[in-house]
Amino acid sequence: MAHPAPTPLQSRLHRLRKQVVLASNGAFLLYSLLTALVEPELRRALLGLDWGELLSGDLRSHAPRFWGMAVALFGLITVLIWPRRVRELFLVYVLALLAVALIETRRMLLSELMPFHLTLWLTASVPTFFLIYGTRRGLWLSTLIFGVLVFTLLFTAWPLPGPLRGDVAADWITVFIVMVVSGLSSALLMGLIENNMMINERTIEELRRARIDVVTGVYSRAVIEEELEAAWQECAAQGRALSVVMCDIDHFKRVNDVHGHRVGDEVLHAFAQCLSLSLSRQGLRSSAKVGRWGGEEFLILLPDHTEAQARTVAETLRRAVVDYPLAGLMVTASFGVSCSLGLEERAEQATRPRQLFEEADLALYSAKRAGRNAVH
């Protein structure tokens, strides 16, 4: 089953997520490198690519940072390769950060020190969780990380012979309060953003529906009238040709009377799609405009088309309708659908768009009086 195309807002949010993930991984990679380079022992081991020394011996306490650096580098590369997998790839970064947090929390607690670097990264990452995963999943992920850290802290501190030093305990309390406030603020802000996105998408959909005829899928009458007015003004100002074509389904009342209005709506929809498809095949998809004028009547705008050129287009449309299969219609016997078309080119002496439509409408009824299935 095909997924619906993302809305412009969803596309922008996805691009923003990608940029945030790249920035997060890049920042952690930069942090790991710079903090290593300012420490002489780490700098010598790193520049000498002495990974054995980094992962064992006196420098093994710094190993989690370098594992985190490797994961950040992995995240940068993979997001650039698979930009549509931002959420899945960022989860690898989050899990690596959590693993480092567990190791560092236990090590620093036993040393009666405070892992300020780690806590700063965790606090800075909390808003990112909500941007990447949304309010509900971001809240769940933040709560999970917070809970794991608290559990690790209590599990490590419980067997200690004495209580934590007052300054160390105060530091940890401060960290947890800041993380909670950061998470709640981010959740509220992301909830507001998501709510506004839903309202915006609903408004866009309502505007789209107001512009589109629900039965046929082409422009509604109000919109095609606006398009006619705009095309008239533009072509008149620039001295360009403009033709309109009025078309009407022949004997449409018989379809409704014999097969019912549901089948009639199916015929209207199929007819409109046939017009759009034929115009597209003639290379007019972006320039021509099709709208339902009312009932079984349709109006087609053809900018930059003289009467002779419009007649060629109209004749192609007429043949396309005759040949178009009405597949899926629930009727007991097949029936043919044809249409009559009337066209008119904008005259220099004409002063209003309505005159153009009225002349095309007269040509349409002339085609009907001549026997239908014709272009006049």
Automatic annotation (TrEMBL):
- State the Pfam families in the record: GGDEF (PF00990)
What biological processes does GO assign it? cell adhesion involved in single-species biofilm formation; negative regulation of bacterial-type flagellum-dependent cell motility
Checking PROSITE patterns in the record gives: GGDEF
What's a Gene Ontology MF term here? diguanylate cyclase activity
> Would you say which domain of life the source belongs to?
Bacteria
Q: Where is the GGDEF domain?
A: 240-376
Q: Does the keyword Lyase apply?
A: no
The UniProt keywords, alphabetically, are: Membrane, Transmembrane, Transmembrane helix
Q: Which GO terms describe its cellular component?
A: plasma membrane
Annotated transmembrane regions: 20-38, 66-83, 90-109, 115-133, 140-160, 172-193
PANTHER family attached here? DIGUANYLATE CYCLASE DGCM-RELATED, REGULATORY COMPONENTS OF SENSORY TRANSDUCTION SYSTEM
Q: What is this protein called?
A: Diguanylate cyclase (GGDEF) domain-containing protein
Taxon lineage: Bacteria, Thermotogati, Deinococcota, Deinococci, Deinococcales
